[in-house]
TrEMBL record:
<comment type="subunit">
    <text>Consists of a catalytic RNA component (M1 or rnpB) and a protein subunit.</text>
</comment>
<keyword id="KW-0694">RNA-binding</keyword>
<feature type="compositionally biased region" description="Basic and acidic residues">
    <location>
        <begin position="34"/>
        <end position="53"/>
    </location>
</feature>
<keyword id="KW-0540">Nuclease</keyword>
<protein>
    <recommendedName>
        <fullName>Ribonuclease P protein component</fullName>
        <ecNumber>3.1.26.5</ecNumber>
    </recommendedName>
</protein>
<keyword id="KW-0255">Endonuclease</keyword>
<dbReference type="Pfam" id="PF00825">
    <property type="entry name" value="Ribonuclease_P"/>
</dbReference>
<keyword id="KW-0378">Hydrolase</keyword>
<dbReference type="GO" id="GO:0004526">
    <property type="term" value="F:ribonuclease P activity"/>
</dbReference>
<dbReference type="GO" id="GO:0001682">
    <property type="term" value="P:tRNA 5'-leader removal"/>
</dbReference>
<feature type="region of interest" description="Disordered">
    <location>
        <begin position="34"/>
        <end position="55"/>
    </location>
</feature>
<comment type="similarity">
    <text>Belongs to the RnpA family.</text>
</comment>
<dbReference type="GO" id="GO:0000049">
    <property type="term" value="F:tRNA binding"/>
</dbReference>
<dbReference type="GO" id="GO:0042781">
    <property type="term" value="F:3'-tRNA processing endoribonuclease activity"/>
</dbReference>
<dbReference type="InterPro" id="IPR014721">
    <property type="entry name" value="Ribsml_uS5_D2-typ_fold_subgr"/>
</dbReference>
<keyword id="KW-0819">tRNA processing</keyword>
<comment type="function">
    <text>RNaseP catalyzes the removal of the 5'-leader sequence from pre-tRNA to produce the mature 5'-terminus. It can also cleave other RNA substrates such as 4.5S RNA. The protein component plays an auxiliary but essential role in vivo by binding to the 5'-leader sequence and broadening the substrate specificity of the ribozyme.</text>
</comment>
């Protein structure tokens, strides 16, 4: 299970990660990563109600989206459990305060644990080595 301080719960946090973060798509899943973890212009009033903030450094938080297109409830829950376990092992690699949303695609319902792990690792490698938004893309200076 994912520790409480590492869970995304609020709709606003999911939206922030998806809309403001970077995206890496793979055949089995799509990973959205927002390195900032905070919306610009957020007030102190909102930060007081955030249970994941400990000792001034916010933890990386993760959320999962597994739609009915993936399969029946048993399959969706299996995919969610596998993804939670995989992300939990990789939380320390993420910058403090970052938000990550992992969205399972329909083929994830029939994929093995190792296939999910491979796609998640590939997506995270791409997102963590990527330049911050607003910079010149790689290969543009040729």
């Amino acid at each position: 299970m994912l520790p409480s301080e590492n869970r995304l719960r609020r709709r606003q946090d999911f939206a922030t990660a998806v809309k403001r973060g970077r995206r890496a798509g793979r055949p089995l899943l799509v990973v959205h990563l927002n390195r900032d973890g905070e919306t610009k212009g957020q007030t102190d009033r909102n930060s007081d109600s955030r249970p994941h903030v400990a000792e001034g450094l916010p933890s990386a938080r993760a959320g999962f989206v597994v739609s009915k297109a993936v399969g029946p409830a048993v399959v969706r829950n299996l995919v969610k459990r596998r993804l939670r376990h995989l992300v939990r092992e990789r939380l320390l690699r993420l910058p403090a305060g970052s938000l990550i949303v992992v969205r399972a695609l329909p083929p994830a319902g029939t994929a093995s644990y190792l296939d999910l792990e491979h796609d998640l690792d590939a997506a995270l490698r791409r997102l963590l080595r990527a330049e911050p938004t607003g910079s010149v893309p790689t290969g543009a200076g040729r």
